[in-house]
Each structure stands twice: as structure tokens, then as C-alpha cells.
Amino acid sequence: MCFLNHPLRAALGLFVLCAMLFAVAPAAHAAAETDAQSTLKHALDEVFATLNDPRYSEGANREEMLSKIENTVAVIFDYDEFAARTVGKKWRSFTPDQQTRFSKAFADLLRATYLERIKGYTGNGTTYTGQRSSTKGDKVEVQTLLDFEGKTVPVDYRMLQKDHWVIYDVIIEGVSLVKNYRTQFQELMTDGNKDAEALIERVQSRAEEVRKQNGKTE
Question: Which first-to-last residue range defines the signal peptide (predicted)?
């Protein structure tokens, strides 16, 4: 199974969380910020402070730094919602235990892929360009432009209001990460619960492969 096989989107996917780290809203729009944007920016400030903490300079206390970043991101990034949407309609055919194990495996894959690379981001940041809200007001798409390797790339965050605002999808150059993963996962899902087990195993093994590539085994 190929994960994010488009070169630019694959590279950008590695820095989806990094785009969050350097988000800057124009001052003129400050008064018009939504609660979703405020929630997002609060998380960004915390992560940015961690990245700039002198205790973590030159790779010192790396595991502690990644743990702090992961804890901050986990508050705003809804791994369970993301996981369910990548599976789509077949999510209902998963048993509760399978749903729990898949969500854990998928979160593990995202952490192995993104958080391990977060410290390598060297772009000039992100600027908010607008937002769209659902009719009920419980969903918001925050639109941004990311400076990435000399290119300006649209990266939008889809957020859902639960007990607080959470991210459930990221759109890179018009391509949804949820839909990207869903397309790939559907290749392994044609036979109900048996397919759920195959998918869980594949995602778990892929997370392990990524950790080994990063020189990190757990």
C-alpha cells in the first residue's frame, strides 16, 4: 500500500502539523477570529514555545520535546474522528474493539510520520486567508497559505466542534488527507471484519516501518 504517493503532497504531508506551528493571522482580522481559529492558534503557540525552548536546542532532550508536542497536538487533533473518516461507511462494520485498535494504530502512524519530522521544518510560515462555516456553525474550514520550499501552497484545516474545536481533516493543494488515506485503505477492505483485521495489521506494520526509517524503535 502506498501512503501519499504524490511527491509534493507526500512531502507536505510530513509537515502538515508544522504548518500549524507557524500560523500567523493578519492583525486586521484579529477581531474577527472564530473560536476555532483561537483554539488552533493557542495550540500553535504552545508548540512553537516548545520548539524554541533552549532546553531542546541541538537535539537535546529530544524525547521530552516530542512528548510535549504530541500532548499539545493531541488536544486539537481528533485522531478518532480522522480514523473513522478514513475508513468511511465501512467503519460501522468494525466491532468496537476493532474501531479502538484501528484508531490507535492510525494515530500511531500519524505520530510516527509527522511528529518525528516536525523539528525539521524550515519554512517561513503560514498565513490565514479566510474561512468557511457550515450552516449549523459546528464545522469550520480554516484556509491558509503555507510557505514550503519556496512555494506558496494552500493548506486548509477542517475543524469540528465537540466539547472543543478539533481538527479532523487537512486539505493540501485541494486534496483531502482523509480521502487520500480512505482511497488507499479501501484496497484492503472488501470482506467485513476480516478486512478490518488486515487493515489494522497493515497500518501497524507501516507505523513500525516509519519508526525504523526514522531510527526510532519502540
Answer: 1-30
